[in-house]
Amino acid sequence: MAALRTQAFAAEELSSFLIETYQTKHLPQMVNDFSQAGFTKELISKHPQKVFLMLLVAAYDRRPFTRAAGGYEYIWGMRGNKGGLPARFSSIGLSDPFQVKNLLQEEIRKRLKREMINHYPLDSADYVDYSKTLLDAANSSEIVFDLLLKAEDSNDIVNIYNVITHVHGIGETIAAKLIKYLLREIAITNIEPRYFPLSVVWPLVDEYHNKIAIEKLRKIGSDVVPLSMGLLLQKGDPFAIDALFYLNRYDPGMLDDFVSDVSQWSAYYKRQHAAPKPAAMTLPDRDKAIRLLEIIRDVCDDVKWITKEELMGLGQPNQVQSAAKRLYQTMATYASTGDIIGMYSYYHNCLGAKSGMEWDWLLEKIGRKSLKSEWERFQKVYHR
Asked: What DSSP line would sit under 160-224, residue for residue?
């Protein structure tokens, strides 16, 4: 029972963490990146050719091409990278779906074979014959375009997803990514996020970076990610699961800190429930818990105003602030029931944890309050 409860707690924390990361960091970055590549809501909603190019380039947004190019940004032509595939397809006459339809497959294959990413020719990779991908994308792009503009509910989303996955070379994970961008992030038809069905969202867990992040999260329980997915559906933003991509690729330290924090709490919870405790030690003390929480609030409030310049390249403000937020939420949970023993043990565990010691060192270096600097004050209140 204790293991199930700790996983439920971890899932609740993770779902909130993912929604915050997705909505404030990952989603804005995706919209900005794709806009730089010419894939904006305004252009896509007016030009079927943009849908064709998205289908086509998405089919190459996978290994070995992303690894050879140095990232998906180079594949799509984002962030000032002018040599992306949209420009290259245009240069070899393969960017217009109507023109592609009129070409023989062998002619398409010849043109693709002349183009390379690093030493990989664009005509094939693994099981994919990209000449067929181009023809399928050309024949499907107008259908997808019309369905996108008319999409209103879950059934419409599933229909679009099914059409996309019938394009040779586009599997379920790539299709889910396309749906996420087109209908959630730039919101072509303003479908409410709660309408995205699990069958369309779940394939994202097989994406390379998401898989690495999920493997890290297994340390706090094998059911944590499925439980979190259920909570994301309940909270109305299931595509927030893709925040794992952002965390693994751009901010792995934040994910590591989250796993460390939850692991500490879980370990403490298991110890607390492993054997009965003396009655005198379990009596709640709400007044003292409030005074202890005030100390935690002082630390977290001080961290709130840290600037990037202050950290001198030793970390990012959002990393410290997210860790502080999780600290306060956990301590507030204990305080709400007057569990001063839980507050003390959690504080002590944070002091001894690797991530806790690293943050304490950094905060002490820049003259900010930390768990270490306030430990004596915390003990005085606790033992009073």
From this structure: HHHHHHTSTT--HHHHHHHHIIIIIIS-TT---GGG--HHHHGGGGGSHHHHHHHHHHGGG-TTH
Taking each helix axis from N to C end, the angle separating 48-60 and 130-150, rounded to the nearest 10 degrees, works out to 130
The answer to whether 314 and 362 are in contact (CB under 8 A) is yes
In the numeric block, the tokens 């086509």 are attached to 56
d(CA 85, CA 62): 13
Q: Which of 244, 239, 247, 246 is nearest to 176 (CA)?
A: 239
Contacts of 380 by beta carbon, 8 Å cutoff, 6+ apart: none
Phi, psi (deg, nearest 5) at residue 2: -60, -40
Rounded Cα–Cα distance for residues 128 and 64 (Å): 12
**CB atoms near residue 257 (< 10 Å):** 22
Question: Model-level pTM?
Answer: 0.73
Which residue, 27, 77, 22, is CA-closest to 54? 77
Question: Which of these, 138, 46, 38, 40, lies nearest to 96 by C-alpha position?
Answer: 138
Characterize the bridge pairing of strands 128-129 and 116-117: unpaired
Q: And the tokens for 326?
A: 């999780």
One pLDDT digit (tens) per residue for the chain, 384 residues? 446 667 787 888 889 889 989 999 999 999 999 998 889 999 999 999 999 999 999 999 888 888 888 888 888 888 666 678 898 899 999 999 999 999 999 999 999 999 888 888 889 888 889 999 999 999 999 999 999 999 999 999 999 999 999 999 999 999 999 999 999 999 999 899 989 999 999 999 999 999 999 999 988 888 889 999 999 999 999 999 999 999 999 988 888 888 887 777 666 555 555 544 444 444 568 888 888 989 888 888 877 777 767 666 555 566 667 777 777 878 887 888 888 888 888 888 777 766 667 777 777 777 788 888 888 888 888 888
- Phi/psi region, residue 71 (left: phi>0; alpha: psi -120 to 50; beta: rest), is left
Whether the CB-CB separation of 328 and 294 falls below 8 Å is answered with no
CB 130 within 8 A of CB 112: yes
Joined tokens for residue 161: 């997803």
